[in-house]
Amino acid sequence: MEESRNSDVVVDKPKTSWSDLWKKEDYWAIWLGVALLVAGLFIYMPNPPKEMDAQIQKTNAIMKAESEASPFRTLAWHDANDAKGKLKATDGQLGKKVGAYLKRPAGWKDNPKEAFILSDGAAAAKREKAAEKFAAAKEKTKETRLKAEEAQAAAATATFKSDELNNSARLAIGDWRKAREAESKAKAAAETKPYNLIPGLLVLMIGTGLFFSFGMKFMGKSVGRFLAGFPVVFIIAVLAYFMSGQATAKAYGVEYVLWAIGLGLLISNTIGTPKWVMHAVQTEYYIKTGLVLLGASILIGKVLLIGIPGIFVAWIVTPIVLVCTFWFGQNIIKMPSKTLNITISADMSVCGVSAAIATAAACRAKKEELTLAVGMSVAFTAVMMFAMPAFIKAVGMHHVLGGAWMGGTIDATGAVVAAGAILGPQAMYVAATVKMIQNIMIGMIAFGVAAYWCTKVECAPGGMNLSFGGAIREIWARFPKFVLGFIGASIVFSIIYASLGKDVGKVMIDEGVIRGWTTGLQGWFFALAFVSIGLATNFRELGKYFKGGKPLILYVTGQSFNILLTLVMAYIMFFVVFPEITEKIMKM
Amino acid sequence: MGISALILSKLISGGPAGRPPEVLHRIAGFLIGILLMLSFVFLFLPALKNLGSVGQIIDMLEESGIESGAFWYANVEKVGEAERHISSLELIHEKPGISPGTVRSK
Lengths: 588, 106
Fold this sequence. Notes:
The complex is a heterodimer. Chain A contains 28 helices and two strands. Chain A has helices at about 1-5, 20-25, 25-45, 50-70, 75-85, 95-100, 120-155, 165-190, 200-220, 225-245, 245-250, 255-270, 275-280, 285-295, 305-330, 340-350, 355-365, 365-395, 400-410, 415-425, 425-440, 440-455, 470-480, 480-500, 500-535, 540-545, 550-575, 580-585, and strands spanning about 115-120, 195. Chain A is an all-alpha fold. The longest helix of chain A has about 40 residues, at about 120-155. Chain B has helices at about 1-10, 20-50, 55-65, 75-85. By secondary structure, chain B is mostly helical. Chain B is built from four helices and no strands. At the A-B interface, α4, α5, α11, α12 and α18 of A face α2, α3 and α4 of B.
């Protein structure tokens, strides 16, 4: 029975020996992940943007001087901030070349072909169509800029002491920012270039297949059979990205993981997954390697970005909700599976799909359990993305409070940003920052769950009688080793980030290695993993896990508690204990 | 039809291979699934736009290009912008922006 259970779990059964280092998937995930992270550092770190240090110094000096001179963010402050935002290591020549091979199918609305190919003629037609809108947007930006300059000059004449003049300057600058953003969107459309993504996707498919086949060879699996089946898994992953790129589906937040599982399930439960493809259906291998890459973007220094309120909203409420939901699942509704319970609890309380992936892998949850947790998260996220801003608007809630509330409760970061954007820039900035801080927590959660599982849940029979050394060996044997790669990547990248300083770190790590390299690869690996889950899952089996609706009860109860506790904590932090932070945010 | 059914029955797995009606039954299930997925994207989701202010919001999100479904912060462009704005408030004391040494500009 244990044997059959292990064939379905997200992480395999642990045994220890030195040969594990080259025979076990966990270690291969670490080796491959580390190799990619080192490659990323070599690609981006030697190629900083031109005059980066001087530019950062200059923009920081302007922003500091402007902040000291005015109670609101002036035009010069925004100009400097925009210039700083343009500094990206991904814009380097090598970075651009590499990025071209990691591209997903492009977004499309009515013409599916545009996901892969845009001809010269079609690009020209798009440019022509967008030209008029761009010209109008440019004009509007110019006009609003002039008005903002006038309003700012009036406020400056009163030495920024008139609240009325300051407020009208702030509003005029806000209008200019909106117009500028619209212009930048219109400009992108007016400068549409032709593309053909198929050669890049082919290179990525071959490269990824060969890359994973290294580990397959050492793990004693057939490389030939793996490579024969891999293109099918990869093509379904491409289709998942293709479907998620459709404009309407994208706006609703129907992300690639859902399409990857859906397409895989459809194939396996109708025409059947061909046996020769099953050799490339390597869920755990792809997931664990993707998680090691994800570890690099868990930059610990960012948790303090929004000060102590952020810590309380994201790092105090979240573990409380996680533990209480898990307890509720075990003791009140009696969830039949502990692994499903913790996967749903983490998914709902931390950050949705990414937390579900990391937790499921750390506690060896079954693939059906991960599928269920991801499905519920995506469905509830889509509902909350509309319902929460609507409620906040209806009751006239303060935008900082609303932003923090949504950031702490809506699962997916993209949906948090979308919900925040519905309210306004301040709400969006707070929501996105709180969510990012919560994202960073998954390293600790995954480690905690792995440690708890191997010490408390999966204790060996008679484990209580083991000596200290024996107990340590037992824990080590059961500990999912790839978690060490995941945590190690986080620690190393956090140190590099901190040693560079926040501005250079942002340009070189955030806007270089992470956004240009690891995020793209990690996305592809997760897509391959979710396709594999779908291809290996029987739909009827999935239904069994939903029996009695207990997972739904768990999610709804946990999320209700999360919504309530986050709101109370956000209110206390942003309005009772640190109102000056709220005030500062509102003056942005 | 006989040849294609025979080829398909060799390619697919998961049950007794061979009998054309069964193969066709599976293919029909697959095609229905594809149709359902396409209907979800092109009929159901657009129809939801008629619910209250959902349509307006969806149009705004489509226009803005925000990656609404992205689950990880590094996949969402706007998070970088939010980070820049919030970090400029200097709510905590951080190391200065420039780090001498490790990275040099060209």
